[in-house]
Amino acid sequence: MRKEICLSGSGGQGLILAGIILAEAAGIYDGFEVVQTQSYGPEARGGASRSEVIISDEKIDYPKVLKSDILLALTQKACDKYIHNLKEEGLLLVDSTNVLNIPIFPGKIYQYPITKEAIKVLGNQLVANIISLGILVEITDIVSKDALKAALQNRIPERIRDLNKKALEYGFQIGENLINMV
Hints:
- By secondary structure, this protein is an alpha/beta fold.
- The chain has one domain (2-181): Pyruvate-ferredoxin oxidoreductase, PFOR, domain III (Pyruvate-ferredoxin Oxidoreductase, domain 3, 3-Layer(aba) Sandwich), CATH 3.40.920.10.
- It has 6 helices and 6 strands; from the N terminus they run βαβββαββαααα.
- It has helices at 15-29, 76-82, 114-122, 128-140, 145-155, 161-181, and strands at residues 2-10, 33-40, 48-56, 68-73, 86-95, 108-112.
- Helix 1 crosses helix 5 (145-155).
- It is globular and about 40 Å long.
- It starts with a strand and ends with a helix.
- 46% of the residues are buried.
């Protein structure tokens, strides 16, 4: 098993942190081989941001994603830029708050207004990254939920931990609903 995941959007959306949490869940808590890399524009907020995670049950000999199995796109620009690197049988998860033009794609497409719901339900758009992780894990089982919860607990500062736990659980719930809709 080897899965290549690309989490993409813009700076300030917490995608680097999301990639680190996913990698920690897979590597430390679920015992897989993992590589996590990141790329972002020179702007602190608003520039391009991407976090790549490779999860495998065998040694990983090349640390870059060649063709994504999974693409999370939180912005239109990210979706347009990285869709071409997604395998035809891959999975595309988009934040329909910001991604209004879904490209034609033969794989599975899941869309949900993640940022809009983060504001509406939890009062904070900054947890859209954690909601996204919950959705992603629920629909793919790429890591165990317990591993993701443990990694979140380890990486999130105590003062905002409860909000992020709620965001993760909300993401699991959304993911379950999306699965049932397909």
